[in-house]
Structure formats: C-alpha cells, structure tokens
Amino acid sequence: MHNIFTDMGLILIFSLIGSIISLRYRSPTVIGLLLAGALVGPHALSIVQSGEAIEIFSELGGALLLFTIGVGFSISNMVRQSFRALMITAFKMGLVFLISYLFSLLFGLPVADALIIGFVLSITSTAIFAGLVKDEFKNRPEVKLLFSVLVIEDIVGVVILTFFSSMKVEAVKSISTGVFVPIAFSVVFLGIAYIIFERLVRRFMWHVDNLNSSDALILAAFSVAFVLAFVSHMLGLSFGIGAFLGGSLVASVPVFKKVEHLLVPFNTIFASFFFFSVGMLFDWKAALGAIWLLLALNIINLLAKFAGTYFSTYLLGFDSKSAAFSALAMLSVGEFSILIAKEAAPSSSIDVVSLTTAIVMISAFFSSRLLSRERTIYPFLSSLFPRSERTPFRRLSGYLRNLMLYLEPGGRGFRRFLEQGSRLIFYGLLAAVVAGLTFIFSSIAPKTGILVAGAAMYDVVRIVGLLLFIAPFSAAVLAIKEILETAAEAFLQNECSALETGKRAKRALSLFALFFFTAFIIPIIFALISLPPIFYSIAAIPFAISILFLWDASRTAAFILRESPLKRRLLERRR
Questions:
Q1: Pick from 296, 328, 413, 534: most CB atoms within 10 A?
Q2: pTM exceeds 0.85 for this model
Q3: Residue 361, CA distances (Å) to 30, 76, 268 in order
Q4: Mean pLDDT score, 435-463
Q5: Could you report the per-residue pLDDT of 329-348, keeping only the tens digit for each?
Q6: How many helices (H) and strands (E) does the chain have?
Q7: 61 and 402 in contact (C-beta within 8 Å)?
C-alpha cells in the first residue's frame, strides 16, 4: 500500500513538472506528461518501477478520461451537422487508414500490425485539439464542425477499442469476417444501454438533485460511470467503453448542466494520470530500434491527415484558408490511439504502444507549431494550387455544399426522408403483422390443434389476410418510391435537374455506370492489398448511389416517352 501511495505522489509531482515545462514552451501539456512519464518509468530512470501500479493508473486514468469525453458527447450538436461531419470523418479517416495500412505492408509488417497502425493513425486527439483551439481559435466558425467530426471519430474509436478489447490474440492475427461480430455487438450494446439506462439515470439524477448538493451530483455522475464500466467489464468489454457510455448518459440529463463546469479540474487530473502512466510504458530501446519506421509513420500521419482534412473540408464548403486551418488543427494522434494500441498490443509483433506514444508526442508538437504559423503557411499552400486549378474543385464544393444543406436537419430532403421513413416503418410493420397473423391462423393453428375449423374457413382467412395485406404493403412500396425519388433529387438537384430531359437521362446513366464500376472494382482492389473481407462491404455505398442514378434515368426516360411527339400523335389518332 505504501508503494502505491508513493508512486501516486511521484506521478502527481512529475506530472506537474512535465505540464509546467510544456506550458513554458507553449506546447500541448500531453507532450510534457508523456515525456516525464517516459523518463521516470521502468525503461529509463526507473523512479517508478511497479508494473502493477503503472497498469492500475493507466487503466483508471483511461476509463476516467473516456468518462469526461463522454460527458462532452452531444448528440444534438452532432445531429445538426451530421451529414457534413460524417462525410469529413469518412473521407479523412478512410484516406489516413488506407495510406498508413498500405505503407505498413510495404514496410514488411504483417496484416494484423498494418491494421492496428491504420486504426491508430486515423483518429485525431480530441484532448489535444481542444487545447489548441481553446483560446485564440475558439470563436472560429470551423471549430464547431470540427468538434462534431471528433465526436464521430470518438464513436468510431469506441467501436475499434471494443473490437480489440474483446478479441483474443489468435483471432486478431487471423482476421476474418467472423471476428468483426464484436463490433456489431458493441454497437448493439451501446444502443440498448442508452435505451434502458437513460430513463433510470434521469430519475436517479433527479432524486439526487433534490438534495441541493453539487457534490452529490458529481458523486452520482461518477457512480453511474463506474456501474456502467463494471457492466461493460462483465460483458467482456473494456472498462473505458462503459465509462464513456456513463459520461454520455449523465450529460443527457438536464440537471447535470448545473455542475458540468465543475468537472473541468477532474478532466485535467484524469488526463494527466492517463498520459503520464502511458508515458511510463514507453520503451526507449524499442522506439530507437524501430526509428526508421517511427519517422516514416510520423511523415505518413502528418501528410495523410493534412490532405484528408484539407480536401474534405474544402469540398464541403470551407474556403481554402479555413480548410488549411482545419487540416493543421487535426494533425495530432491522441488518447483513443493510445487506448487502441494498449488493447491491441498482445496481438502485435511490434511495440505498438511505444510507437504510438512517440507519434502522439511528435504529432502534437508539429500540430501546435504549424497552427501558430497558419498565416505564413496559407500563402505557401495557395502558391501550390493556383486559382485556375481550383475552379473544378470549387464547382464540386458548391455541389456538395448544396447536397449537405438538402440532407441535413432543416433541409427539405431531411424532412421528406423523415416523413417517408416514418411511413415506411409504420406500414412495413403493419404489413408484417398482418402477414404473420394470417400465417399463424391459416397454417400453424390447424397443425397444432389450437383452432378447429373447416378447410374452407382457413381459405377465407387467407383471402381476408391477403386483402388486408395489400393496403399497408402498397403504402410501404409507395414510401420506398418517394425515398428513392428524394435521394435521386438530392444527388441531381444542382446540375442534372436543370438540364433537358434527354441530357439528364444521359448524365444519370453515365453516373450510374461510374458508380457501378466503382462498386465492382472496390472488392478486387481490397483483395489485392490483403484487406479483410469485411471491408468489401464499403462497395455497398457506391452501389447504392448507382441505383439512385439508375432510378432517376429510368424515371426520366419514362417522362420522355410519355411526353414524346410520337405518343401524342398516337393519342390524337385514338381520339
């Protein structure tokens, strides 16, 4: 016990020293915490030697850090900019993952290690980003959208963390489609837990609020986090998954807003414990032994993240200056990457924790330094891409911006999707209920002897059931038709909708062929680069878009035939 308290005291003292040094040189405190931990840990000065204490502090710090991240998780803010944030996240994470994965394979790493590195590098640090923008840049219009992007990345990070925390070493090393089942399980777990626990937590916090004590509310919030962390652990998942869920549930309770600001000091302490403890796991010899891989991964991370963030934000409505700011602010690797590296370490043939820790320090340093020189970097970037070469991208940017406005909450498309989606669910369920009852009373009941009637009676039941089934089924089909037309209008509204019908049909067919070919070629390319079969499902996205264009082409062709002069002459002759 004495050793634990001694180690805790040393961690607090050296965390303070590391933070002061970082602040003195205007760098993110994460750098100082990781460096201080690496220096006093068992792989350097060995001031703190207890492996058990290091593991306890890193596990506890990670869970509590995820709790505070969950507290900052806002579904309402994410939904307001959901489509735009989702597009930026998908493009940026997909590009970084693919480039880092391919590079790792070229460096001779196994597929499992390449996947781990791809996941680790694709996530940006929320904590470091918040520290970079909290003062000088907090009022910039891009920051709110970028926080929404980071929220989605954190959700992806939770899913990835759940996958690695619930998989055995052998399962990860022989990755197949079947081992991705825990990912679906984690998503279902999060959804069910939200539904079940939200009402319970709301009532619990309301009763605690009646005590008129801020301290009681804070203790209640931590209690919820630890209960859900325990439930998560009992299900074979990481403590951090439940802690994140507990934080997001507590944040959804209105009474918690009274004390939310009081959690800021706790956030600082938890982050310090986590990053310092992870720093103590850093192995200098392992990092120096893989120095060329480390340097290459840092270059890949900086270039791929900058390119992914810059082009995705530029194409979705940011001007080039705002896109450059966003790219510089999103360079860092952080807390979720370290957590993923820790969980994946038993499955890796390299010291992925030490590599990730070093990448976090280097990326945080470059992100802070480059962001402070944003005004000098932007003219250089502008000189690389003259205005004349940016014109096609601006047209595409305008198209995508209008598409997002159409699909996001408040847009006409969103309202129509919501309306027709509700109709589809209602009439689809009604049709399923009618079909199920008809099947039970006409087929199962006679065999089980529940109902005794003549054969003619069962035929009548079938006919009545069929007649009752037609109405909701037809309504569901019409709802699907409206959804397809709304989706086609969303993708074609800017240019094709203004074209003549003949040109519109040709354009829609051309786009159908393009996206259909893309959907066809994606599994082939992924097979060539040894990605697991689960990634082949990405081809469903361009395939779905190709179906929308085919639908619009067929609808436009029908309109052309209906309005053609030949058909009008035939109708006149019949009259």
A1: 328
A2: no
A3: 7, 32, 18
A4: 62
A5: 888 887 788 888 888 888 78
A6: 26, 0
A7: no
